[in-house]
Every structure is written in C-alpha cells, then in structure tokens.
Design goal:
- The complex is a heterotrimer of chains A (264), B (156) and C (783).
- With 264 residues, chain A is of the alpha+beta class.
- Chain A has 11 helices and 14 strands.
- Chain A has helices spanning 12-21, 34-39, 75-80, 82-87, 89-95, 101-106, 109-115, 122-129, 142-145, 212-220, 245-263, and strands at residues 5-8, 25-28, 47-50, 60-63, 66-70, 132-135, 139-141, 146-148, 151-152, 160-166, 171-177, 184-192, 197-202, 209-210.
- The longest helix of chain A has 19 residues, at 245-263.
- The N and C termini of chain A lie far apart (49 Å).
- Chain B has 2 domains: 2-77, Roll (Ubiquitin-like (UB roll)); 86-154, [2Fe-2S]-binding domain (DNA polymerase, domain 1, Orthogonal Bundle).
- Chain B has a 5-stranded mixed beta sheet with strand order 2-1-5-3-4, sandwiched between helices.
- In chain B, a hairpin with a 2-residue loop joins strand 3 (49-52) and strand 4 (55-58).
- Chain B is globular, with a radius of gyration of 15 Å.
- With 783 residues, chain C is an alpha+beta fold.
- In chain C, helix 9 (375-393) packs across helix 10.
- Classes of the chains: A alpha+beta (264), B alpha+beta (156), C alpha+beta (783).
- Chain A binds chain C through residues 1-3, 40-41, 176, 178-181, 183, 241-244, 247, 250-251, 254, and chain C through 123, 126-127, 287, 651-652, 692, 696, 704-705, 708-713, 718, 771-773, 776-777.
C-alpha cells in the first residue's frame, strides 16, 4: 500500500471540505473493496477521508412508502433492520448474502454503490427497485446513477448520503455466485409492482442494467415460462474464466425465472 | 505517522504507526500478538478475523487507525485464567484443527456466528456462515462439528 | 493395556497452543535488527532482461541493499537443483536447464525472480522495488501443456530442444500391442489432469539470521523437511557448510507437498543475511504464492484398455504429456514418472501395461509434488477409464471392478509396473463402501431427484497408492540423489519424562500426539510425560521430513526401533539394579521385573538409575537415550473405495455433493480421530480439484488465477460431512502394521466425483474442474 494522509470526519460538510482540499482524496466507507485495491497498489490516493464518524449517515428510516438507508449503514445492519425486513424483505436478503459475515460487518451500502463493481449486488437492487441516490448536492435517480464499469454519476466532491428505496413487498433477488470470489456472476433483482415489473441485472454486463426485454415479457405474462422466448444480447455479456457470455446470458434468464417463482 | 490507541484483549494499548498500517500489522508487529494470521490479500481467507467492538472483522481489511478507540479481541484474549473458551475447547474436543493456521480466525468467526445465530446451530447454517474462512486441512467436517458443539456449550 | 496407546482417539497435545494464538509459525518469529526482503518478479512469461538499473532503488528511503543475479553468481551461490534423474529414451539424463535463484539475463515465467530489495520495513522495500528499472525483450511464450513440444513452438531453454525434459517409456510395448490386436473390446479416454495451486493456508516464509561470531546461518523456513533443506542448501547451493547452517521449520501451516522444495527466496534470504549482516525476513503474500509456489498436476493423457468378452482387463496403454513448468523444481522429474506410471495397475490384475511420458517445459511456474503427487493423476486416469470400460462392455461400474480386482490370496502381488503390493483386500473395501453408500438404493434416489428436476449420479473410485516413501535402495536405483530412511531419538531425562526427536515434520498431521502414543504403548510412559520435538536441525539428529505419507510408516518405525533399544538397555540396567541376570528381566507396560519374583522397577526408575551410575560395572554404559534409523523394506500401499453421490442442477450446471462415503485400508490406526481428519481433508482437496480448482494461464503465459478472487478454493458450503469407515489389512512389510493416510483422500476423491457426474448426465467424460458452465454445457449436449 502507498502511504496517505488520514482524516476521520464527523460531518458531511467536513468530509466535503476535506476532499476539496486533498490532492487526490478518496472517501472510505467500510473499505472492504478499497483497502484490498490499495494493498495491491492499484490505487494510491493521497488522502483517505474516513466517513465512519459521520453519525447522520448511519440511519435507516421508513417513511412515505419508502425506506431510506444511510450511506454508512453496513450490510449486516440492512440485513437485520426491522424496517427493511418489513418493507423490502428481498433487499434484506440481498444484504445478508454480500461477501461473508466479517465483510458485512464493515462493508456499507454507500461504499458499494459508489464503487459500482460490475459484479456487486446492491446496484441490482437500486435499479430493480428504482431507488434514488441522495447526495450532499442532489437526488440522483437510480436509473441514471450507474454510468459504466466502476463509474457513477458522482462528481469528485460529491458524497452519497443515503439511498431511498420504494417499498416493495413482492420482490426477489437471485444470485448465481462466482465460485471463487462469491461475487455475482449474475444477479437479478426483480420487483413486481402493481402495474409493472422492474428487473435489475448485475454481473452480466460491464455495468448493472435494467433487463428491459425481461420486463416486457413479464409485463405481458408474469410467469417463468414467459422468459423462455426472450432473447438476450450475448455480445453485451461479460466473459471470463468463470462464465462465458453465452452462459451468462442463459443464467440471467434462469435467475429471472427463479425470481419470478419466488414472487409468485 | 499517526498515533493509535485502543483496547486489545482488555488492555489499553497505544502506538505510533504509518497511516497505511493495517490492524493486523499493528497486532502482529507492534503488539507481537502473532495469533492473528495473514493468509491472503483479498479478504477471502479469514485467517485474520478478530472482533472489533464485539463483531467479527477481517483485520487485514481495516486500518489500525480505523480501530482507534475501539475494543479489539484477538484469539489471545479468549482463554480466561488458563481455561479455554468453550469454543476453543470444542475445537480441541472435535479435532477441528490440524495445522492451526486458519484456526484463530475460525474460532473468532465461530464465536461471532453463535453471537448472531444462537446456540442451536444446524449444519447448513454453520457451513453458510463460514463462507469467509478457508481451511485446507480439515475438509471442514470437524470444524462444523466443533462449532455446533461450541455453540451449545457457550449456551451453558 | 496402557491408556492412550495405539488405537486411542487421544485429543491432540499440540492443540492448546494453536487454539490460544501461541503457535509459532515462521512469520511469527522476529529477531532483533530484522530487515525485510521484497522480490522483484517478472511480469512477463518469457523475456530477456536487457538492462537492470537498481541505483534509484538503492537510494530509496530505508533500503539496505538491492541484489540481482549477478551478485549471487559472484558469490557462487546456487543454482537451484532437481534431485532426481529420469533417463530419457535416448539414454541421456533428463534435460536440466540452469535455474538461478535470481535471473541471469532471462526470465521464463510470470513471477520468476529478478532482484531482491532489502529494507528496514516491508513497505519501504516495496516502495523501492518500484524504482528498479528493467528493460525486457519480450519473447513469445508457451503455456499450453499439450502443444509445448510441437514443432515450431517457441524454444524456452537451449538445453531442452522441443521444450522436452524427457521422454520416458515404460513397459513391454510389443506385448501390449499384441494384446490390443486380439482384444474383444478396446476402450479409450482422453483427459486433462488440471493444474492445481497447492495453497496451504500459511504462505511460504523465510528468515535468515547470520551470526558473524560463529559464522553460522540460522534459517527459519516454512519447510516439511528441515534436514533436506539444509542438505540441498549446503551441498548444492553453497549457502554454508552443513555444520554452519541451522534450518528451523517451526510450526508450519500446512504443506501438502509445496513446502518440500528448496525455493529461490529461501536461498536468497539465507545468503543475503550474511551479505548485509542483518537478519532478513521474507513472507510471501498470497498473490506471490500463486505465482511462485510450485504447482501440481497438469497432465494431458490418452489411455486405452483392452478387454475380453467378460470385461477382464488384458492390457493398458497410456500416453501422457506432463507440464513441468519453466524450470525443474526439487523433485519434479519423479512425479509424472516414478510416482505416476508405477501406480497405473491400480487395484487390478491387468497383466500388461505400457506407458509413455513426455515431460515438457512451458513458461509457467515450476510444477512439482502436490498432495498425492503422481498418484492422483494415475488414479484419476485409471478410475475414469474403468468407468468408460464398464459402459462400453455393459457392466455396472462396481461389477467391472470386482471382476478385475487383484484377488485377496494373490498378495504379495507383483504388478507389471514395478510395485509389489504387500497386502490388500480390495473387494472388502468395495463391498463395505457400497453398503455405506446404500448403492442399491441409488436408483430410487435418482428417481426422486428427477421429480425435483435434478440429475442424480453415483460414482466409484477404487484407488491404491504407494506411500511411506521410500526404500532407499528402490529410489536410488531410480535415480534419486538421497536415501529415504527416517531417524529418531528417544531420550529419557533423569526424572523419567521423555523427549522424542523425529526427523519427520508435523504441519497439521498431529505427530506430537500420534508419536507420543507409540511411546506410551511401547514403553508405558504416560502421554503427558512425553514431548515430541521436530523441525530443527540443531535439535533433531537427522531426518528426511514429511511427504508421501511417510511419517508414521517410516518415521514411526524409527521411533519404535529406538524404543526397542531402550528396552534392551533398560534390561541391562534393571538386571544390575535388581541384582538379577539380564536374561531373567522381563519388560511389560513400563515395568522391568525379574521373572518369577516380585522384584521390579519402572522405566522412570531405570532412567534415573542410568543417569546416577554410582556403582556401574565395567561395560554398562550410563545414560538412557537411544537413536535409530529405519529404511523401509517396501512402499506402503493404502487402498480403498470411495463413493460419491451428486445432484446436478441441469439448468445451471451446479453440482452438489449429497453423500460421500469412504472406506479405506490404512492398516492399523494409531489415533483414529486424527486419521479420520486426514481423510476428510484429503477428500475435500480432491473435491476441490474435481469441481472448483484450476490454475489457468492465458496464451501469453499470464497467470489468470492469481488470487482467491479467481482461484476457487473449496469452502465449507461446497461440501457435505462424510461417512468414513475402514477395511484394514495387515501389511507384512511394515513393522508397525501401518499404512499412510495423508494423501488417500486427495487420490480417491477426484475420479469418484467425476464418475458421479458422468453417471448423472450419461456422458462419457467431463474434464476437471467440472465447473457449473462445463457441466451445464454437458447437460445441454445430452438434451
């Protein structure tokens, strides 16, 4: 790891001031991805601004058909939150399957989505649920937040403060895990709303995306069988030693079907 | 350099470290608590698991400075007055260790599993909860048995 | 009967220190003034080094020295060696390229060592390493086993034309050909034995400490065989004379073969500590381990079996290409030859076997022994081929095995491939395993699984291995540069407690307990009064270390022999003390007594007497401390049948092991609890190879699986609990009646798992690792 200056801030304002002053500053939330990256010297920020002291970022609030989760809420806290379990049980389940218990004790929702790993779980939920990402500057629609592999709409001095998820009782997340890393080879977050279906797909492509063709098919016929004829673009799928593009495309459909079954 | 201070196994400790010092390095190199091990660089293997403020953490994926003002428990802090912690005893009784390298992390994770899931653990739960701890020696069979037995005896 | 002797599942003596964080692994050892080494490794698979400039790095903060291959060469250190010759088919020795510990002008795999930076802290060493300037002339690379020796391939070493280390034929080729010509049926199989990275959880490490006053180097190192390290580093690498080199292998966090070998880092650290006159420590991180630990397996093979109408095996022919990597590691050459081809008979009475092995160089990490070493490759090939034979001839896999087993009354059985099995009862293990697995109830379970959309399969593997390595005469004849005896010293202290010094090394196997049980059984000393000491050339007289499941079968016998000497000596002392004739002294359960009288003294009293020889007559030597060496008469031949039952999810290709039953013959068990643990671990190692693990290089020789993010290690949720039982026979060639058990699971499991998958899907073959995608594709092809 390259050395850096370390600052633990107590408020969002302090955090933003600190990053503006830094030459090449980075916020660290749980650090569960950032620290391994830095250990391999793949990143070398000049300043680390630790957000763990910002208490306002650790709340979970249920209000107006919505659950708002602070950016610094750990995966473990989301998984065990009474509000999340009641209003969006699929999201609690997703959080309870990220990484492993020790990682879930440190890793946070804000850190995960700010990193936007193409194989991360939370982005599928943001997209699937149509969540809103709240920052110190604005509200960003989930659909607009993830802009590419490890890229987001965040500006350099912009800090995620919370994510607001619409309540969704009929929803399911199905993940096919990479046998080595346990990240998602494919993850499908499916939400059945009163008038339509939303599908967030992670792992399959360079960046999380909405499964529009899957949604179209399910909007017509909400059943596993409806998925069979859907044709997904194999060319857009990721391909690596763990799964070819063709297999990933197949898995997207299988995971979607299983999510439909779980919702029925 | 930065000053850190925390409680480790019930004792206050302080040190001056580089900012980039990981908690596991602080424990092993500064405090010479070498029971906590390093088995990988990607937060996968779990040999470095300790408890920070009562919950399991991979100490290779936390900066020492981030542990400032916390209470850290390592494998060295479990046995009280020479008596093994019930989970340590269960690992011994059930041959839940061979080379011993993954063992400290396994035991720390096991206690965390019990803290979260209670004293009556089925095999599937234990296996799932061990996702973040890799062992090459035991084939897990006896680790699972150990944790189930340890969970029971932790319940008294 | 003594308590805690042979056959008792005694809890392990070593556990308290491991469970309380008091283990003492190499990286836990710290010495005053210690510096840290960081190795600069090649990012290219194959390149010339046109220029190295270390000046900026040398001036970097905290740096003590930067060394390159030139510095080693100037001091006459190295090169690394391979200790076993295999004669190629042209009558010449195998081709052995120069293997410098730090590159001299050329690098041959990703991770190859180029230079070392020694600094006050590891972070400073890494910072400085980035300032070393190296100009490479990148060359085309070859990583693929099957095509490495093809015409027109990039040549790696001038001394090895065609990238070939050796061509090694074995067996009666023409007799086999004749048998094939007249056979009723010939079954064939082409397969890959996937490359593994051994991955003990403790990464390798070394700490060199030079004392300029005594001119002695102490090298703490992650080793399975401290004396072998000392011998090789002294005799062949010129590190220091043997009597000025102390090698300490303290607690070692798993070995599985990968810590047998003498590595570049160990030699460099040992040399550099004298050079800079400061202790130097190096600890591998996991990515370095993936790059630079010796890998295992990596064969491509074509096998054929000739059968008669009843499915009786008439002859077998095997053609194998084995990848040895970029250089020859310490024992690499013997793995795909002697440890492989000599096991091709398996449990069967196949009368004729012919094997050709081509060992090739590639631009990949060196390949050497890994848990089982050669025997898993042979067993996988044979046990897969037997299932193909069963299908081709229309027999149940269990039945074809029964028909071909070496009969129980045929032991000792001379196979056509050198090995002479001393004992075995293969049908007994098979039948017991089938019963444990409820083989007969399988079709019902398969039907039930089908109703849930799953494909259920069952697979057998009846393995035999040769371990307890090894008779020195046998390995000497084959070209080994060392003898493979073992040594022990059993020392009574005057107060009656015992220190046992063994030349084997425990890195998870529980020797401190098992060996103590041997002493308890033989000498009647309570277990708590016995301490087993290993892993330090300054403490233990000699030893060849631990690998090839040899510790008990060879090292245990050495201990037993030292105990026999103590009993003989004790009789002399007791005779003197009890004023009786030596011939009248009897020894039983720790007591020396005069036959037919109530006069006796226990062994602790004898020990005390031996150190307080106030009235010893001439000729009675004081002291109660004996040494013994043991050279085995034969290999040890553990065997067994493993049955694996799996379910495939045809939609995703996921394989779940739903039941796994193992019945093994390990002869007499000293500590059943420990043996069972070895079986469990071995099985999961084998399951890992079958389902998850596969080391991959791309076409340019870049290592793709360089961390646990990409190399899938078996985790707790990948496997079930196991049903383990035994069908022991008594091996006449082993004085203790024991066989090795450490590798058996890793040998038996892979074919059992794959046979279950091919059974579930009704396909001829699927290569390992049977990843979800590969299984899914296979499931597609069956429609």
């Amino acid at each position: 790891m390259y050395n850096f200056s370390f600052e633990k801030v107590k408020s969002v304002e302090e955090a933003v001031t600190a990053i503006q002053k830094a030459e090449d500053g980075k916020f660290v939330a749980g650090g569960q991805t950032m620290l391994p990256t830095m250990k391999h010297r793949l990143a070398g920020p000049s300043n680390i601004i630790d957000l763990s002291g910002v208490e306002s970022l650790t709340e979970i609030k249920a209000h107006n058909e919505c659950v708002t989760i602070g950016a610094m809420v750990t995966h473990r806290s989301v998984a065990s939150s009474p509000e999340v379990l009641r209003d969006i049980p699929a999201l609690a389940k997703l959080a309870g399957n990220i990484g492993d218990p020790a990682v879930r004790n440190r890793g946070t929702i804000g850190g995960s989505i700010a990193n936007n790993d193409p194989a991360a779980d939370y982005p599928a939920a943001i997209i699937g649920l149509g969540a809103t990402v709240n920052t110190n500057k604005r509200e960003i629609s989930g659909d607009d937040f993830f802009t590419g592999m490890f890229e987001t709409a965040l500006e350099e001095d912009e800090l995620i403060t919370s994510i607001s998820f619409p309540v969704a009782n009929v929803a399911a997340y199905m993940k096919f895990e990479n046998p080595a890393s346990r990240y998602a080879i494919v993850g499908v977050f499916l939400v059945k709303l009163s008038d339509n279906v939303r599908v967030g797909v992670t792992g399959a492509t360079a960046c999380v995306h909405r499964g529009r063709r899957l949604e179209d098919a399910l909007n017509k016929n909400f059943s596993p069988a409806a998925i069979d004829p859907v044709e997904l673009s194999v060319e857009e799928m990721n391909s690596d030693i763990h799964a070819s593009a063709e297999y990933r495309a197949h898995l997207v459909k299988v995971m979607t079907k299983r999510a439909v079954e779980a919702c029925n | 350099m930065v000053n850190v201070s925390m409680s480790v196994n019930g004792k206050s400790v302080t040190g001056e470290v580089e900012e980039r010092t990981l908690l596991v390095q602080f424990l092993r190199e500064n405090l010479r608590l070498t029971g906590t091990h390093i088995g990988c660089d990607t937060s996968q293997c779990g040999a470095c698991v300790v408890h920070v403020d009562g919950v399991s953490v991979k100490s290779c994926t936390m900066l020492a400075v981030q542990a400032n003002s916390t209470e850290v428990t390592t494998i060295e802090g479990l046995a009280a007055n020479g008596d093994l912690h019930p989970m340590q005893q269960a690992f011994k009784d059930n041959h839940g260790l061979q080379c011993g390298f993954c063992t400290p992390g396994m035991v720390m994770s096991a206690i965390d599993i019990v803290n979260r899931n209670g004293n009556d653990l089925d095999e599937t739960t234990v296996r799932k909860e061990l996702e973040g701890n890799i062992c090459r020696c035991t084939g897990y069979h006896n680790i699972v048995k150990s944790i189930q037995a340890g969970a029971k005896s932790m319940g008294g | 009967m003594v308590d805690n002797g042979i056959g008792a599942s005694v809890l392990r003596k070593e556990d308290n220190r491991f469970l309380t964080g008091k283990g003492n692994y190499t990286d836990d050892v710290n010495v005053l003034g210690q510096t840290h080494a960081y190795f600069i490794r090649s990012p290219h698979a194959h390149a010339t080094i046109d220029r190295i400039d270390v000046s900026a790095a040398s001036a970097s903060e905290g740096v003590i020295a930067v060394f390159t291959g030139d510095d080693l060469e100037k001091d006459g250190i190295g090169p690394l060696i391979c200790g076993v010759n295999v004669t190629s088919d042209d009558g010449e020795p195998h081709r052995a390229p120069l293997h410098p510990a730090l590159a001299q002008g050329k690098v041959n795999y990703v991770g190859d060592h180029i230079a070392v930076v020694i600094a006050e802290t590891l972070a400073q060493a890494k910072d400085a390493a980035e300032k070393v300037e190296i100009d490479y002339g990148v060359l085309p690379a070859i990583a693929d086993t099957a095509t490495a020796a093809d015409n027109g391939q990039q040549q790696i070493h001038d001394v090895a034309p065609g990238n070939t280390c050796y061509n090694w034929p074995f067996g009666d080729k023409s007799a086999v050909e004749e048998a094939f010509e007249t056979a009723h049926k010939i079954s064939t199989l082409e397969l890959v034995n996937n490359r593994m990275v051994t991955n003990p959880m403790e990464p390798r490490a070394a700490l060199g400490d030079y004392n300029s006053g005594t001119e002695e180097i102490t090298l703490h190192v992650t080793t399975q065989n401290p004396h072998v390290h000392r011998l090789v580093l002294s005799a062949f690498n010129q590190l220091a004379p043997e009597h000025k080199l102390r090698v300490v292998g303290p607690d070692v966090g798993g070995g599985f073969g990968v810590k047998i070998f003498v590595y570049a880092e160990e030699l460099v650290v040992g040399w550099a500590c004298r050079k800079v006159n400061r202790p130097v420590k190096w600890t591998s991180d996991r990515t370095e381990a993936f790059m630079s630990d010796a890998h295992g397996r990596d064969h491509v093979a074509f096998a054929e079996m000739a059968m008669d109408e009843r499915g009786k095996f008439l002859a077998m022919r095997v053609n194998t290409t084995a990848n040895l990597g970029a250089y020859l590691s310490t024992f690499s050459t013997m793995v795909p030859s002697y440890l492989y081809a000599f096991l091709l008979a398996g449990q069967y009475s196949t009368p004729l076997i012919y094997s050709e092995v081509k060992a090739v160089f590639t631009n990949t990490a060196p390949v050497d022994a890994a848990r089982g070493a050669g025997r898993p490759e042979a067993t996988y090939l044979l046990e897969r081929l037997v299932d193909v034979c069963a299908e081709d001839i229309g027999l149940d896999p269990a039945e074809i095995r029964r028909r071909n087993f070496i009969p129980v009354d045929a032991f000792p059985y001379q196979t056509p491939v050198v090995q002479c099995y001393d004992s075995g009862d293969y049908p007994a293990a098979l039948e017991k395993a089938l019963s444990l697995a409820d083989y007969d109830g399988f079709s019902e379970r398969a039907k039930e699984a089908k109703s849930r959309g799953k494909r259920r399969g069952i697979g057998l593997s009846s393995y035999v291995e040769a371990c307890g390595i090894a008779p020195s005469a046998a390995v000497g004849q084959l070209g080994a540069g060392v003898g493979l005896w073992e040594s022990a010293q059993v020392r009574f202290n005057p107060t009656g407690n015992v220190q046992v010094f063994t030349g084997t090394h425990s890195h998870g196997q529980g020797h401190e307990t098992t060996f103590a049980q041997l002493i308890t059984e033989q000498l009647g000393v309570p277990l708590e009064n016995i301490e087993v000491i290993h892993g330090d050339t300054a403490k233990t007289q000699f030893g060849m270390g631990t690998y090839g499941s040899r510790s008990l079968a060879v090292g245990g016998v050495a201990i037993a022999k030292a105990c026999e000497k103590l009993i003989a000596k004790g009789k002399k002392i007791a005779a003197h003390a009890l004023e009786a004739a030596e011939g009248d002294i009897e020894f039983e359960e720790g007591n020396f007594s005069v036959a037919g009288t109530d006069k006796s003294m226990n062994i602790a009293e004898v020990a005390f007497n031996a150190y307080v020889p106030h009235s010893y007559p001439e000729g009675l030597e004081p002291g109660f401390d004996e040494n013994a060496f043991f050279d085995p008469l034969n290999f040890s031949f553990p065997a067994g049948t493993h049955v694996c039952e799996i379910e495939v999810d045809p939609e995703t290709g996921e394989v779940e092991i739903v039941k796994y039953s193992a019945v093994d013959d390990f002869g007499k068990l000293i500590n059943p609890m420990i043996v069972e643990g070895q079986v469990h671990g071995g099985i999961v190692h084998g399951v890992g190879q079958a389902l998850l693990e596969g080391c991959q290089y791309d076409a340019d020789g870049q290592l793709i699986t360089a961390s646990y993010m990409d190399y899938a290690m078996p985790r707790a949720d990948n496997v079930p609990s196991f049903d383990v039982d035994y069908a022991p026979t008594n091996p006449p060639d082993n004085p203790l009646g024991v066989k090795g058990c450490g590798e058996a699971g890793a040998i038996g499991a892979p074919p059992a798992v794959i046979n279950a998958i091919t059974n579930a899907l009704g396909i001829k073959h699927i290569d390992m690792p049977a990843t979800p995608e590969n299984v899914w594709r296979a499931a597609q092809s069956m429609g």
